[in-house]
Amino acid sequence: MEKYQVAVVRDNDIRAQVTKALELLGGMQRFVRPGQKVLMKPNLTGPASYEKGVTTNPFLLEALIELAWEAGASIIDVGDGTGSLHIGTYKVMERCGIQRVAEKTGAGIIDLNSGPTRLIPIANGRILEKVKINQACLEYDVIINIPVLKTHFITEVSLGMKNLKGCIPPSEKRRFHDVGVNQAVADLNRVFKTSLTVIDGTVASEGLGPKEGKPVGFGVVLAGENVLAADMAAAAIMGFDPKKIEHIKFAMEDGIGPDGMEKIEILGETIQAVKRNFQRAIPSMPSNGQAVIRNFQACSGCMGCAAITISRLEDMGFFAKDPRRKIEIVIGTKIPEDLFGDDLIFMGNCAGKQGKGRKFIQGCAPSALDAAHEILGYFQVEGLPDV
Ligand code: SF4
Fold it and tell me: At residue 15, does pLDDT exceed 60?
């Protein structure tokens, strides 16, 4: 039985690490041929440094670009459509050191949140009949998917399959969360294929990801041709059972790659040698109803911000110190006009109209830390939540 190969390499020298991972799979020349156009797709979810375990390590990206040039690529672009819409992809690239790497290596940069899209039909999709993909993504010969290894409060883990959400426009990203993100991500991966997945676990993150987790200096890189195989190996390394993670389970059932770990050949380090049980992304909530989230079709940005804000306040003892403290965070795109109450806090730019002249935390999505500070201000509480 032919197996799906996934390379796992631990090293402190990123260039040596990436080179070794690729060599174990047959070298970059197996994926990039002379004259081909290459898209590098990092994870640029927000303007946070790779040192926080949120965005792709620019040194890893630099090594991959150099290897792709050496293999004969004619054009290399670095592209993503950030989830931080209020900041924008190019600003995020600048703040994360990605623009600097592109300039240094002669690669272009591209914002996948803008430009024409193409509607791709999905035969027998779980939840989607069609998906809109940024057209530019469909015009490269090779796509190298470079997610960060992290936990995620909605999808449990955020790895290669999930990272491809950056190739769809913002309206489609929002729709994924409306219809069910785990099924939608599995559907997207049925029709949108990449050539190589390199999972960046140099600095990973655990806990309340994808943006507010705790960084983990992990020093591990995984690489595989099949995105599902790479994700399954990464999930196992993080201490998860891959078939218990919904979007991975769906993809296993849908036949986009291996349907069990026994179909994967691990090259380099063993899973056991690098395994570390990552803390899950489970926000804490006060048990007596002091905090409520009222969600009127918000996307994951505000859902995450609301849950993580409450979790921060709970962890600092805000609710326990005074049982009369109560908040209702209102988020979403379809908030009714006639919502009233002293405890309401409107969160996110989509709630701006209803929040006018009331307690309103702006941003798309706001940072959970800023939101927690604002709420402490409303209650005139001294002291800040632990970051
Ligand atoms: S304000 Fe919130 S709900 Fe609206 S698009 Fe931004 S993150 Fe999504």
Answer: yes
Q: Are strands 130-134 and 75-80 parallel, antiparallel or unpaired?
A: unpaired
Q: What is the pLDDT of residues 294-303, one digit of tens each?
A: 999 887 778 8
With a 6 Å cutoff on the Cβ, whether 365 touches ligand 1 is: yes
CB proximity list for 312: less than 8 A, separation 6 or greater: 368, 369, 372, 385, 386
CA distance 162 to 43: 10
Write the residue with the smallest CA distance to atom 6 of ligand 1. 364
Question: Is the beta carbon of 44 within 6 A of some atom in ligand 1?
Answer: no
- Please report the sign of the dihedral spanned by the C-alpha atoms of residue 202, residue 203, residue 205, residue 206: positive
Q: Where are the domains of the chain?
A: 4-274, 291-378
Tens-digit pLDDT profile for residues 210-252? 888 899 999 999 999 999 999 999 999 999 999 999 999 999 9
pTM reported for the whole predicted model: 0.89
**CATH for 4-274?**
3.40.50.11440
Minimal CA–CA distance to 68: which of 42, 44, 39, 97? 39
